[in-house]
Structures are given as C-alpha cells and as structure tokens.
Amino acid sequence: MSTPDPADDIAEALARLRGRRPHARGHGGPHGPHGGHGHPGPPWMAGPGGRFGAPAWMRMLEALAAASAPLSVSELGEAVGVDQPRASRLVQQGVERGFVRREADPEDARRTRIALTDAGSRIARGAKGERREALSRALESFTADERNELARLLNKLADHWRV
C-alpha cells in the first residue's frame, strides 16, 4: 500500500536497494571512493590520505540508526554490503571519529555490539534529510502518476533484488 506521498515510497525503496549492494571491488572511480582529491567535505568523508569511503560509511551509520538494537560487526557488514574485515575497519574508523561505540553483548561478553553515538545519530539524520530534500527536488518535474509509477517500480525492484 502506498503512502500519500510517493516520494516516501521512493526513498524507502532506494534505501532498501542501497543496503543490498554487491561487495565493492576496488576503491571507486578514478578519483577514489568519493570522486575527488583534497576537497573538504562532511566529517565522515575525511580519513587517512583523504580516502575514507563515504558510501559505506553512510550505509553503516544508517544501518545502525535503523536497527532496533546495536549490531555485531558481522550483522553490520551484512547490512552495509561489505565483508567482515571491511566492516571491522569501518567500525574502527567510526570509533576513532566518535560516531560509533563498541558495547559488550549482554548475552555473550566475548562479543561486542556496535551502536551510534549522539554525533553519529546526528550525521545519519542529517544525511537522510538532505537526501529526502534532494529527492523531492528531483521529483518536482514528475507528474503524480509518474511519481506513483516510479515508486511502484522501485519497490518491485527492491523486492526482487538478489545479491
């Protein structure tokens, strides 16, 4: 069932598709994972040598924001679409920047769970709001019927996407 605003359905389908990406090969395009060198950007993009991997970072923060409880590194890797070693590196970088924290698993003290800090939550909410605003602007030239059809087709794609 569609919501009154098809943009909400479109945003939800796109978010579902983002979380189902195949494992990345290499480090992105010719200019690295976020398309440029030496350009200042949001705090999650900065990293050693200027290469941090913003798409994976944002998927990590969004996965944690959407989760009902902290996630294990393996669960986080699955949600983000990266392997366990890459998920571990993302978590370590997130801890270093103060966006995520490690917590003991209450069911197994040998395991840790990953949770957002307040700073990480603010970034995840801000990015989601910016994307939603950009999506609304992009849909301005669409008719109501076109928006509904796009929402229907994207959700159908997300329902049948296999990685």
Structure description:
The chain contains six helices and two strands. The chain is mostly helical. A two-stranded antiparallel sheet has the order 1-2. Helix 1 packs parallel to helix 6 and helix 2 packs across helix 5. The relative contact order is 0.18.
Compile the SSE list and pairings:
Blueprint: H1 6-18, H2 54-66, H3 73-80, H4 84-97, E1 100-105, E2 108-116, H5 118-138, H6 144-160
Antiparallel strand pairs: 1-2
Helix pairs in contact: 1-6, 2-3, 2-5, 3-4
Question: In short, what is this structure?
Answer:
It contains six helices and two strands. The chain has 163 residues and is mainly α.
Keywords:
163 residues; mainly alpha; two-stranded antiparallel sheet
- Termini separation comes to 25 Å
Q: How confident overall, as mean pLDDT?
A: 75
Question: What level of helicity do the residues show?
Answer: 40-55%
| Major sheet characteristics | 2 strands, antiparallel
Sequence stretches where pLDDT stays below 50 over 5 or more residues: 20-53
Strand content: 5-15%
Task: Please report the total strand number as a whole number.
Answer: 2
Helix and strand content put the structural class at: mainly alpha
Number of helices: 6
Shape: elongated
What is the string of helix and strand elements? HHHHEEHH
Strand order of the largest sheet: 1-2
Radius of gyration: 17 Å
